[in-house]
Amino acid sequence: MPGGRSPLNMAQYINLALQISGSTFIVGEGDAKPEFHITAAKPESNVMAAEPESHNEGKTTLGFKVDVRLSLITHHHTYKFTAEEHNAHQRSHEIDAMLKHDMRSNKRLMRILLTGTCESGKSAFLRLVRLINKEEFSHNELLEFREAVYENLIQGMQVLIQERTMFGIPWQNSANEVNEILVRSVELCSMHIEPCTFQHYVSAIVSLWKDSGIQETYKRRSEFQLCESVQYFIDNIHRFGQLNYLPSSLDILYAHKSTKAIAEHYFVLRNISFVISDVGDLCFRKPRLFHYFDDITFILFIASSSEFDQIRIEDDHTNCLVESLIMFKTIVNNLLFFNTSIILFLNKTDLLEEKVRKGDIRKNFPEFQGDPHRLENVQAFLVQCFRQRMIHGQLLFHHFTTTVNKQNIWFVFHDVKDTIMQWNLKRTIII
Fold it and tell me: Fold for domain 89-118+258-430?
């Protein structure tokens, strides 16, 4: 193709639509700028990136059903990717090549839609898949995760300081008033944190964490939203403060790094090929995106099992578990998925065990019956809450997991095997 441009895959079309919907995206300079109209809907077939009909006319509409109309202007048929877009584009072609190879090899392909609420552990699951597949993270990715660790740690302490003030809890050590000012002064949105910068805050954060004022606030963390990896990060803060620090595999799994775009990941387990489309909560917030995924085999929904007593920070009144249940109901009951198997990961079981020992789920869910301090009773209730919201009678596989549990991917594999066996059994009965 002219200019060496390669076709965009489905995920890139969707991301482009989400990023520049309603606006004009201009790349390059010069007089010749043929215009392309791209629609935010699934292509009818393997559509190549559009070519202008002529330099004068310069308008081509792709073979899409119109939902959101975008305008992409290029210079001499050249699309310039950023470094991040280039990596995603390259990865897309690798996935396409592997899929074509699998089709020729008659391997069974399973498409999984990965979704769930924010901070439920979706990104950690995909990172775990990469680690199990022995796919190394690039040096640039490690640097990004290092900065995410620093931001998670500083932001976590800033939240604890703010909530301590709101609760009216005094400092045990008055010297921490100075440390409070230092940590509060960090503007994460406007600064790039290197190890030499982070070192300036290590002693202040350690001192604040040891103060009974912060410890008392931390005990009340169910009353506000706090990154659940804060204690892990603080336990390892001196390692993070070393000038040559790069994140370990465990650090990467615990780091919270928001994803704002749809991503696809390919892997193979025992001769079964998987493509996971990570959509976050986009399908819930933008229901029109459901139509992109009408060919999926499974929905993998991840929820935090420990959030039954937590409140969303965005509106300060919606229970986090209720939000997960609403999202689950909206997605699995869509008519496109009436025959799609559901895999439910109730994540962060380690935190759930701690809350069951100390708390009482009946304060937030008075309909609970059983012993609120018995883990099995609480888990059964949570599963029933999700199951009751399914109206199509799809297969539901559920697992209680932890963020760093390497068995998670094998849970998925065995659920896929069970589903295949049931499909084959149904075919046999029909025949």
Answer: Rossmann fold (3.40.50)
Contact between 11 and 264 (Cβ < 8 Å): yes
The domain limits of the chain are 2-80, 89-118+258-430, 139-254
Phi, psi values for residue 338, rounded to 5°:
-65, -20
Report d(CA 308, CA 322) in Å as an integer. 8
DSSP string, 352-407: HHHHHHH--GGGT-TT--S-TT-HHHHHHHHHHHHHTT--S---EEEEE--TT-TT
Say if residue 130's pLDDT is above 70: yes
Go through 249-279 and write b for each residue having 16 or more CB atoms within 10 A of its CB, e for each that does not. Answer: eebbbbbbbeeebbbbbbbebeebbbbbbbb
> Do the Cβ atoms of 348 and 302 come closer than 8 Å?
no
- Mean pLDDT (the chain) is 75
d(CA 308, CA 177): 34
Using a 10 angstrom Cβ sphere, with 0-12 exposed, 13-18 middle and 19 or more buried, the burial of residue 343 is buried
Ramachandran bin of 47, using left for φ above 0, alpha for ψ from -120 to 50, beta for the remaining angles: beta
State the Cα–Cα distance between residues 253 and 251, nearest whole angstrom. Answer: 5
Helices and strands in the chain: count of H runs, count of E runs:
15, 10
For residue 319, which of 304, 330, 309, 329 has the smallest C-alpha distance?
Answer: 309
Those residues whose C-beta lies under 8 Å from the C-beta of residue 173, and which sit 6 or more positions away, are 207, 211
What residue type is assigned to position 391 of the chain?
A: I
* Range ranked top by mean pLDDT from 107-116, 381-390, 403-412: 381-390
Q: Which fold has domain 139-254?
A: GI Alpha 1, domain 2-like (1.10.400)
The residue type found at 279 is V
Instruction: Tell me whether strands 24-26 and 69-73 are parallel, antiparallel or unpaired.
Output: parallel
pLDDT in tens, 298-340: 889 999 999 898 877 666 678 889 999 999 998 899 888 888 8
Query: pLDDT per residue over 58-89, tens digit each?
Result: 333 333 333 333 333 333 333 344 455 555 55
